[in-house]
Write a structure and sequence with these properties.
mainly alpha, 8 strands, globular
């Protein structure tokens, strides 16, 4: 493969732009739901701390939402410039799905966004809450349609091929709810919630390290840690179910993820190793006997197919898929560990008096984004060499364009993206660096404080009573 041919450069360009794009929807989906929860809690309890946190995070949401829209528009143009053959062949199916996303989701988000950001005093609290809820629903609908389209490319169903070689819908229900779609939707939405939880938790941890008595920081930190503790194990379960679905429909991807070249009954779980595609083996493998079969087939002696079952030109790039999968799983278990740690500290009544835990939560702030990127790389690179799995290759999908033109636009994208989105990310980080406004729920340092309206917080006692929480 030539590193500077049009196909490779077009793939690099799409990979670069989608990597920038996906981090913003992953954040805005979860943050929109968080804003709806904060708004609802304020209406329910009338505690101003929830309104203060809503106002704190809505500015950050607006920036993330705007950058997500801009980066998404750029991606859509690439279908016409670099992937015109793919667009022509799959347009009758993917075109309507993406159109439904704009009509039912983006318009809903954009229509109510202004009311959510600026309309509280103009429309009243109840209608303002409805607007916030509609923005949250819109982000989830957007995920629904985008993941339906992507899942159809992974597990195509409900289609026929016409005389022009185009994929045309035969059963829209089967197209939309294709075999992998439910698993991908659940996995991605939970990933978005975890991404947001760890960002919110990192911001709360930062401000608790600076001022342990900040009531608003306590509320955001407590809510984030509840989300981490509850959703992390659910995400691991959802990931396991998604993996079983992938084993059924994309077994070559699973073989690459696991680093298996040989088909084996009672296959081991390869924890680490160096996949060697040329020699068709995984060197220096660290294995746990038979655990691979147990995880994948739920049978100690289940048979797991190896990459040698497929011709070399039909295998995904094994090293990339192998390591990106391990990064995703590693971040997932780190999130679970932090969530369990938070439960132990909460039980010990020391959630807000554990600076090392706060530092760990701060360090874990970007973990959701990194896990999403690693998972996306696993999914998309693992689909290779196909754009429509098993039916249309990436080579067959590229436009007849000149490599120089694609390379020039790639360089331009790199320069513009790092400048534009770098500035946007800087403003988001600067906004999070500012402490949330002091709320009327703040109390003197050694008096009882409430972490949220849902559960009493630890009690701080005076030093002569041995400070405890």
């Amino acid at each position: 493969m030539d590193l500077f041919d049009a196909l490779t450069l077009a793939r690099a360009q799409f990979a670069f732009t989608v990597s920038f794009h996906i981090i913003f929807p992953a954040f805005s989906i979860g943050l929109a739901s968080y804003l709806a929860v904060l708004n609802g809690l304020w209406l329910w309890t009338r505690k101003t701390v929830y309104l203060e946190l809503f106002n704190y995070w809505k500015k950050i949401f607006a920036l993330a939402f705007g950058m997500g829209v801009v980066s998404g528009i750029v991606m859509s143009y690439q279908f016409g410039t670099n992937w015109s053959v793919f667009s022509d062949k799959t347009g009758p199916i993917l075109g309507p799905l993406l159109g439904y996303e704009v009509l039912s989701a983006f318009f809903l988000e954009a229509g109510f966004l202004g009311v959510m950001l600026f309309g509280l005093k103009r429309v009243g609290p109840k209608l303002h809450f409805v607007a916030t809820l509609m923005v949250a629903v819109g982000t989830l609908l957007s995920a629904f349609w985008i993941l339906s389209a992507n899942s159809w490319m992974q597990t195509p169903a409900g289609f026929a091929v016409n005389e022009a070689g185009q994929f045309v819908p035969r059963d829209w229900w089967a197209v939309i709810f294709n075999p992998s779609f439910p698993y991908r939707l659940v996995h991605m939405v939970l990933a978005a919630y975890l991404t947001t939880a760890f960002v919110v938790g990192a911001a709360g941890a930062l401000h608790l390290l600076r001022d342990r008595g900040n009531g608003a920081a306590r509320v955001m930190f407590s809510m984030a840690m509840w989300m981490a503790a509850v959703v992390s194990p659910l995400q691991i379960i959802a990931g396991d179910l998604h993996g079983l679905n992938t084993l059924e429909h994309q077994p070559a991807k699973i073989a690459a993820m696991e680093g298996h070249f040989e088909t084996r009954a009672g296959a081991p779980l390869i924890l680490f190793g160096l996949p060697n595609a040329r020699a068709e083996r995984t060197d220096y493998a660290v294995e746990i006997p038979q655990l691979g079969s147990l995880i994948l087939t739920h049978d100690w002696n289940g048979t797991v197919r190896g990459l040698k079952e497929w011709p070399a030109d039909q295998r995904p790039p094994v090293a990339i898929v192998f390591w990106s999968f391990r990064l995703m799983v590693g971040f997932g278990f780190a999130m679970l560990g932090l969530g369990l740690w938070s439960l132990w500290l909460r039980w010990r009544r020391r959630l807000y008096a554990a600076p090392w835990f706060h530092r760990a939560a701060l360090a874990m702030g970007p973990s959701g984004f990194l896990a999403v990127l690693a998972g996306w790389i696993t999914t998309e690179v693992g689909r290779q060499p196909y754009t429509v799995y098993g039916l249309m290759t990436t080579l067959e999908s590229v436009s007849p364009v000149d490599a120089t033109a694609v390379g020039t636009s790639l360089v331009a994208f790199i320069l513009v993206y790092f400048t534009l989105f770098g500035a946007g990310t800087f403003y988001i980080l600067r906004a999070m660096n500012k402490p949330p406004a002091a709320s009327d729920t703040d109390l003197p340092e050694f008096e009882p404080m409430h972490a949220s309206g849902l559960m009493p917080a630890p009690v701080l006692r005076r030093p002569d009573s041995h400070l405890a929480e």
